[in-house]
Design goal:
It is a single chain. With 309 residues, the protein is of the alpha/beta class. The protein has two domains: 213 residues, 3-Layer(aba) Sandwich (Rossmann fold), CATH 3.40.50.300; 69 residues, Alpha-Beta Plaits, CATH 3.30.70. The chain has eleven helices and 13 strands. Strands 5-6-7-3-8-9 form a six-stranded mixed sheet, sandwiched between helices. The longest helix is centred in the middle third of the chain and has 16 residues.
């Protein structure tokens, strides 16, 4: 018998006036997993997470977090759930990291050791007040604040925003350790490669609805597994190129001057592509053959012209 989900949402609706921020969204988060929620700005990600955290009430639908209703059972849930807001939002700016974390630790029955936690998230013995910290340092404080109470479940809002590459990898490793320890992680991220590399389950949302979900491998599998990427002048005649290629090939200009051909890649396809470029006096710069990424899937679902997730 499978374990009960850590988070279960069914037909969730949240409106602000005439605007539906969340419009019938449903999803399940497996216990002990890392789930990434991605989508364009205004897709309903933050509203959904804030309802799960108990900060907002749904207009309709069912939300269960660790089997409880976050609107009704907040007092029972708070000791079991960690919440990370971006860059320490809501924290007193004059507090020093150790002071803040020590205060939060005293609110929990079995907190983590503050000095150990600060070291683990890369804060060391940082003594400056929050208002003097960099954005990346405030992110680390916010992450430590979410973890200090030994939560069973953590909600993380952009956990690696503002971090340098080394700190970002270190945070990934820490989140993987949490998963190994049985902690459930739900995160939103603007970094699609982060979702692809880190998450067990990815949920793509737009207009308050789930467009697609699954493991990264499930989302990136399909007929168009292979992708050819190349650069050239902006606004090439992609319709002409598509007509020259074998049936089923999909051609698009991802950004001005950056092109992708999604198809089953074989010598004939490559020869046709390079012949078309030569016939049109186009140098295909940096031509690469690879597999479809989560970003490819995201752009197919959302559209290349939409805002970042």
């Amino acid at each position: 018998m499978s374990a009960a989900p850590a988070v279960e949402i069914s037909s969730l609706v949240k409106r602000y006036g005439t605007v539906s921020a969340v419009d019938g969204l449903s999803l399940r988060v497996a216990a002990g997993s890392i789930t990434a929620v991605i989508g364009p700005n205004g897709a309903g990600k933050t509203t959904t997470i804030e309802i799960c955290e108990g900060f907002r009430r749904p207009d309709s639908g069912v939300v269960r977090v660790l089997g409880l209703d976050p609107s009704r059972d907040g007092a029972a849930l708070r000791p079991r759930v960690g919440v990370m807001l971006q860059e320490g939002a809501g924290f007193y700016p004059g507090a020093r990291p150790a002071e803040l974390l020590t205060h939060l630790a005293r609110l929990h029955a079995h907190p983590l050791d503050v000095a150990m936690l600060m070291s683990r998230v890369g804060l060391g013995d940082l003594r400056a007040p929050l208002r003097r910290l960099s954005g990346g340092e405030r992110q680390r404080v916010a992450l430590a604040a979410a973890l200090v109470g030994r939560p069973e479940l953590v909600f993380l809002d952009e956990p690696t925003a503002g971090l340098d590459p080394a700190a970002r990898r270190s945070t990934w490793a820490l989140l993987a350790e949490l998963r190994s320890a049985g902690v459930t992680v739900v995160l939103t991220t603007h970094l699609i490669d982060e979702a692809e590399r880190l998450a067990d389950h990815v949920v793509i949302v737009d207009a308050g609805r789930v467009l697609a979900e699954g493991t990264p491998a499930e989302l990136t599998s399909g007929v168009s597994d292979d992708v050819i990427r190349f650069g050239g002048p902006p606004r090439l005649d992609v319709a002409s190129l598509r007509a020259a290629l074998p049936d089923g090939a999909v051609v698009r200009e991802v950004t001005p001057g950056a092109y992708e051909v999604a198809a089953v890649v074989d010598p004939r396809l490559l020869a046709t592509l390079t012949s078309w470029c030569a016939a049109n006096d186009i140098l295909a710069e940096g031509l690469q053959v690879g597999h479809r990424s989560l970003e490819d899937v995201y752009l197919e679902l959302i559209g290349a012209g939409r805002s970042a997730p």
